[in-house]
Batch of 2 targets.
Target 1
Amino acid sequence: MNSTAALRGATVVLGDRAVLRDLDLELVPGITVVRGPNGAGKSTLLRALAGLVPLSRGSREVPARTLYLGQRPQLLHGVSARDNLRFFASFRGLSIEGVGPALASWGLVAKDAGRPVETLSAGQRRRAALARIDVERSDLVLLDEPFAEIDDAAAAQLLRAIRLLAGERRAIVIATHARFELDAGANRVVHLS
Amino acid sequence: MTLTRIWRIAARETLAERGQPDGLVAAVTFVATLILVESLAVGPLAAGQPPVASALFWIAMAFAAILATTRSFDRELEDDAIDAVLALPGGRDALYGGKVLALMALLAFVALIGGLLSLVLLSLAIALPFHLVFVIVAGVLGLPPVVVLFVTLSLRLRARGALVPILALPVLVPHLVAATNGTAAAITGDASGALGWGGLLVAFALVYSVLGLTIVPTALE
């Protein structure tokens, strides 16, 4: 199976500690779940794939259309959820037409989508961030603890979105402590220690 | 493509400043207070001396630039918004240019308010108004490239608030001297002086911008 992304011999050193050491990881279309105890390097692995931390050694190959959603919503304060998502879409050269429907499908009605993000609840901000999955339709989607701060309805929708992406031959990497039912449908479960 | 992305970052920054105008408000308040105190404490006669008025105006502008830029990046760090930009293809390259563009626009507005206040409170008589506009525009162009560069370099440091003025202000000294002399020259009617200092300011802006565009994407790694 052709790989979508890969880390080869990747070593990430933060401060004086090697968080990842000589890691080889091939990501193929479908779901990859990353598990491990706190401090094992799950978030660092995703950040390394997203290009947010430099590799001390090794190489990284990722598609241009990579979406990284971190543990926090990554939406700029002072700007509405709608305008935040419009920015991401237009920056990638995508149509902004899908932003409104995507936010609505994640439970943000027009009134909420137009409010500055700092006035939304944590759960609403997380839903707005997750709506980027539908807007940006990326080949590689990196999700760091995506089930945090969302209610059961949003979690169910996220699971559906993840399965839909996997069905579209996209690669999804999920770092999480929760949702062990994901493991059954995953191509691969990576355990970091 | 990069220019389009720079433009998108600048537009996003402007939207954020419109929604949360604390950077602009802090900068305008700072500049207005300094000019008001200058006119009241020193008196309009002494304060209205072209070199004195110009120097204080540009010192105020330099601090206003630091205030507004620091606030802009504080906002980026809330909810890790900056990570989303850096993870976008070309985001790292466009961030610096976009921030510089947006802050130039913001500082132009602050300079307009500060300039009008100086005219009124210090009773300044401007001999060469168009030359003055040229010098102020050139001066404003040169501030954000330096300040954004140092704010970016110290982005993840806890002492960022203290470090940025310590790092940026010494580098800005030649710029501030040129801006002060150019402004004073325009006020007193020295056309060649105003154009010469203004040209130097444009050169500073270009050099700092090229430096920033080269250094910042690597530094953000």
Note: Chain A is about 35% helix and 25% strand.
Target 2
Amino acid sequence: MAMATAHSTTRAPARWQDYVQLLKPRVMSLVVFTALTGLVCAGHRVNPILGAVAILCIAVGAGASGALNMWYDADIDAKMRRTRGRPVPAGRVQGADALALGIVLSIFSVMLMGMALNWLAAGLLAFTIFFYAVVYTIWLKRWTAQNIVIGGLAGALPPVIGWAAASGAAPLNAWLLCAIIFMWTPPHFWALSLYTSEDYKSAGVPMMPVVAGAASTRRQILIYSVLFLPFAIAPAFTGLGGAAYLGVAVAGGLVFLLLAWRLACSHAGDAVGQRNDDGLYDVRAGAKDARNLFAFSILYLSLLFATLLGEHLLGAAPLDLLK
Amino acid sequence: MSQPGHESEADMKARRGRNIALALGLVLFVILIFVVTLVRLGGNVATTPPV
């Protein structure tokens, strides 16, 4: 189990910024964006204050999951270059404090969501926190190479929570948004892990490149990318996305497939021991195809949700191509 | 960690920052609950049929 590293009298004291860092603000911003898209796409008129409270609850709930993750994974984080500077492994915040912060914020966010919006949204938020902190962090992450495939559900649920907060329901289109993020997660994370696999290997985390090898990971990235594309385009057929969305989904999807194909044909992840620094984007020459897919995957998902958000805010007519 | 009573300047500064952040967080939480109560109460009053 994760424990805080040893403290010494020379250790820097915890600043309030360290507690903010426990909440993983960068992950939180993506969660807020996708949840807002779900809330707006629901098409219900929500009091703006309650809408803001819903987004705040989802953001705080995501932050609480992050704090619980950093509490439990402190031993792993201390072994990886990318994460060893986090507050718990660096010794600036005690593990017990991170645990307490995570539990308190989880309870506050779920209770406030239930009282201010509705209990379906609160239940989904509670399930998401539980899934990320317990199912993914404590169970899957150290046990199976499919960790991020199954665990990706936690990151995919915020649009459904947003939709439920606005409407009190979670229809098929809300779950379609969830499916898009769910199917996007494996190629996104495996592309990253292809050039950070040495870190995962030294920490004993069974990421796909560590367990199955780089060639198998590249092949699986291509397969998941092919499977992901229909989900990305589907909103144009279900009355959720309009013409602009269809254009972005198809054009971006083709680029996504091209990058996945180039990665499959490359030797990314084969070479070891040549990585220079801790950056996510600055990698050795052989892994550039993996970095390109990783970077474009973030752009593509952001564009998909931004287009949906823009269409619904501007009142653009959905295509509903199945009718 | 330093012992109480033997805190360095950096320790005290960090503690003051944490205390201010916590106080602000609590004040914001109280305001949030107050505003949510007003909005929810207002909505319920508006939808209640006149007696």
Note: Residues 15 and 21 of chain B are 10 Å apart (CA to CA).
